[in-house]
């Protein structure tokens, strides 16, 4: 599918009560960082984007290759690289976002475990060189008004499926209270399979994290609860809450989807 070239907005920051926020030409918050704890995941929906950890076997965590499409304020990228210490690649089309993250959001320079690319996320996942190159894929691609995902068609999600290796998990940030949610979720379901999609209930702000996975069945609730205990104890992530919020679903297919 031919896609229009996105308009790249100016990246700006604001600060309030010890938290630094990223904006892209509008008051909408595109990311946040607690200045005194730069690797802490500050926003609720960003924490939930890490729910892929529930679906990965803890024994495989050390071998997990992380990929983020959309850098935001670099919260997930920093967490995967600096806290979990996993090989991490972030793809961001806007060079201003990368520059602001390096100066104001403590994004490290590239090293043997970190690669931040100025590139188009659609072209990245469509590139055959990246087939089966990731185990944890986080997709958070919104325009400067945070109105709707920039990439949201079935071809894109099928390309995301190809990028994941067997055992891989994708998390996608969608607005669960928006009329387009069922359409977006149905496209993910079509790309990954009817029984390979789940969701977390919406945050207070309306962000709904959709999970999709490749090459395995959803673990039993007891297994997820055990993993959540480990994650919460070791990494101080609200993983017990994730298990309670997790549910499978069947989105309504639209004829226009």
Outline the structure in words:
The chain has 257 residues and is α/β, with parallel strands linked by helices. The chain has a single domain (40-248), classed as Vaccinia Virus protein VP39 (Rossmann fold, 3-Layer(aba) Sandwich). Helices cover 31% and strands 23% of the residues. It has 9 helices and 11 strands. The strands form 2 sheets. It has an 8-stranded mixed β-sheet, with helices on both faces. Strands 1-2-3 form a 3-stranded antiparallel β-sheet, with no helix packed on it. Strand 7 (134-139), helix 6 (154-163) and strand 8 form a beta-alpha-beta unit. Helix 6 (154-163) packs across helix 7 and helix 8 (221-235) runs antiparallel to helix 9 (239-245). It is globular, with a radius of gyration of 17 Å. It starts with 11 loop residues before the first strand and ends in a 9-residue tail after the last strand.
């Amino acid at each position: 599918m031919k896609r229009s070239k996105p308009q790249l907005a100016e990246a700006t920051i604001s600060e309030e009560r010890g938290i630094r926020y990223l904006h892209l030409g509008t008051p909408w918050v595109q990311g946040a960082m607690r200045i005194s704890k730069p690797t802490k995941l500050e926003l609720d929906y960003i924490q939930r984007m890490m729910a892929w950890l529930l679906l990965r076997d803890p024994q495989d965590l050390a071998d997990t290759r992380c990929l983020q499409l959309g850098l935001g304020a670099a919260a997930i990228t920093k967490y995967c690289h600096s806290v979990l210490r996993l090989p991490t690649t972030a793809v961001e089309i806007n060079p201003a976002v990368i520059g602001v993250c390096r100066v104001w959001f403590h994004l490290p320079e590239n090293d043997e475990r970190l690669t931040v690319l100025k590139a188009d996320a659609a072209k990245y996942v469509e590139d055959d060189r990246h087939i089966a190159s990731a185990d944890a894929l986080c997709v958070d691609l919104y325009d400067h008004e945070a109105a709707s995902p920039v990439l949201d068609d079935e071809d894109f999600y099928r390309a995301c499926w190809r990028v994941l290796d067997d055992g891989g998990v994708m998390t996608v940030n969608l607005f669960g209270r928006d009329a387009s949610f069922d359409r977006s979720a149905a496209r993910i379901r079509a790309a990954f399979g009817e029984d390979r999609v789940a969701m977390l209930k919406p945050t207070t702000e309306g962000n709904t994290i959709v999970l999709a996975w490749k090459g395995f069945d959803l673990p039993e609730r007891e297994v997820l609860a055990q993993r959540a205990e480990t994650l919460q104890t070791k990494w101080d992530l609200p993983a017990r809450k994730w298990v309670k919020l997790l549910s499978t679903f069947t989105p309504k297919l639209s004829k226009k989807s």
